[in-house]
Specification:
This protein has 4 helices and 7 strands, in the order H-H-H-H-E-E-E-E-E-E-E. The protein is an alpha+beta fold.
Length: 160
């Protein structure tokens, strides 16, 4: 019985067509799968028009240099459904009375993005109640303090 199953058969044109169909079918199916994933994932687009954005590069660099000169720092925390931002000045003192907003989202997609206003907390920071799923998140924090130009910071954090 085993001899009959494993005996050599003649390799015909139909066998070759089957081999070619399987080979190219595999390649085409993998290419189509990768093309679908590429079209449905994050495009990587940061600005709509890079040429126009490049014309404002020096202005943005000057603003960021001035912002860094303030010495302000922001740290984030997320626990029990509350997103918190602790803002400190150059002398490590809290920044009271500021208007704080944050755009919270995933680093590689815009699907879960949300913009929230943070309220002052008794602990000295700012916070808002929001539901965040486990994973890596990024917060674009914008602070408007009295008599100052708006201050911005991008902070990545992990929700466990």
């Amino acid at each position: 019985m085993l001899r009959r199953v494993f005996r050599p058969e003649k390799f015909t044109g139909l066998h070759m067509i089957g081999v070619m169909a399987l080979f190219f079918g595999t390649i085409i199916s993998v290419n189509l799968t990768l093309a679908v994933f590429a079209n449905t994932s994050w495009s990587g687009l940061v600005v709509e028009n890079s040429y126009i954005a490049s014309q404002h590069f020096n202005e943005l660099t000057a603003e960021r240099t001035a912002q860094a000169g303030r010495g302000w720092t922001a740290t984030t925390a997320y626990s029990d459904g509350v997103f918190q931002v602790d803002l400190r000045d150059a002398a490590s003192r809290p920044l009271p009375g500021a208007l704080v907003a944050a755009t919270i989202g995933r680093p590689a997609t815009e699907r879960d993005d949300r913009t929230v206003r943070l309220a002052p907390l008794r602990s000295g920071g700012y916070g808002v109640t929001t539901d965040l799923a486990p994973g890596i998140w990024e917060a674009q924090v914008r602070v408007e303090a009295t008599g100052e130009k708006p201050w911005q910071s991008a902070i990545r954090f992990v929700v466990k």
